[in-house]
Amino acid sequence: MRYLVISDVHSNLEALLACFDSAKDSEFKRILCLGDIVGYGANPNECIELLRKKEAICIMGNHDAACTEQLSLEWFNSLAKRCVEWTKKQLTVENYKFLSELPVFFSCKWVFAVHGTPASPIEEYMDERKAKIALEKVAEDLVLCGHTHKPFKVEEKGRLEPIEEDETTIELGNKRMVVSLPSVGQPRDKNPKAGYAILDFEEKTLEIRRVEYEVEKAAKKIKQAGLPEFIAERLKEGR
């Protein structure tokens, strides 16, 4: 079985649609979203509804938690806070309920999925040290996370390795590792392309892909919504 794995959509409908279009040749059976469906972008309801329609497995991110009053706004910088406040006003009753009830992790076979880290699923950012701790704490061989908006891998006895190519296949085999996925809708690794992964349970591979999307359209929507201009401009540079 293959899963399409995504993270940090951040209300960027154009990026999400581009990922779905790019992944359609992969014959995936399920979608797994590692949190932060909303925040920053201009289409929170549309992104939630698309994932709900596709019966995606979704877990909670810090922006999802903040928009449903489960995480204090004091946690956010001023620009992110403005985006959260705007998003809260846009959410339908049904979509608010959907976000508020998301679990904070997902486990299946040899995979443990979380937004942040197993120790702090919503708030903590993964790094090399925390990856080693995560592999000590969980029984699963592969920990998938988002939140950093930067793709990298950390093997059990290795160092942090950035994933810089637009297409990379990680042979999982019998290795134990943590992989941080690229962001769908708010990349911050100086690559403005949307990112996603294809997880193959039978072959034990994780393919990281980056794809072009309508960045200008997404940025224009952010500005038209009255959200901070910086949030729109950073999309063009992946920062």
Structure write-up:
The chain is an alpha/beta fold. It has one domain (2-235): Purple Acid Phosphatase, chain A, domain 2 (4-Layer Sandwich). The protein has helices at residues 13-23, 44-53, 62-67, 78-90, 93-100, 128-137, 215-224, 229-235, and strands at residues 2-6, 30-33, 57-58, 105-108, 111-114, 142-145, 152-155, 160-162, 167-171, 177-180, 194-200, 205-211. Strands 3-2-1-11-12-9 form a six-stranded mixed sheet. The chain has a six-stranded mixed sheet with strand order 4-5-6-10-7-8, with helices on one face. α7 runs antiparallel to α8 (229-235). The longest helix is centred in the middle third of the chain and has 13 residues, at 78-90. The protein is globular, with a radius of gyration of 16 Å. The mean pLDDT is 97.
Q: Class by helix and strand content?
A: alpha/beta
CA-atom Rg in angstroms: 16 Å
Using the coordinates above, name the CATH class. Answer: Alpha Beta
Number of helices: 8
CATH fold assignment: Purple Acid Phosphatase, chain A, domain 2
What would CATH call the homologous superfamily? Metallo-dependent phosphatases
Q: Which architecture would the CATH scheme give at its second level?
A: 4-Layer Sandwich
Summed up, the domain count is 1
Q: Please tell me the overall pLDDT.
A: 97
Uncertain regions spanning at least 5 consecutive residues: none
Helical fraction equals 25-40%
What is the overall shape?
Answer: globular
**H/E series:** EHEHEHHHEEHEEEEEEEHH
Main sheet record: 6 strands, mixed
How far apart lie the N and C ends?
34 Å
Assess the beta-strand content as a share of residues.
15-25%
The side-by-side strand order for the widest beta sheet comes to 3-2-1-11-12-9
Tell me the total number of β-strands. 12
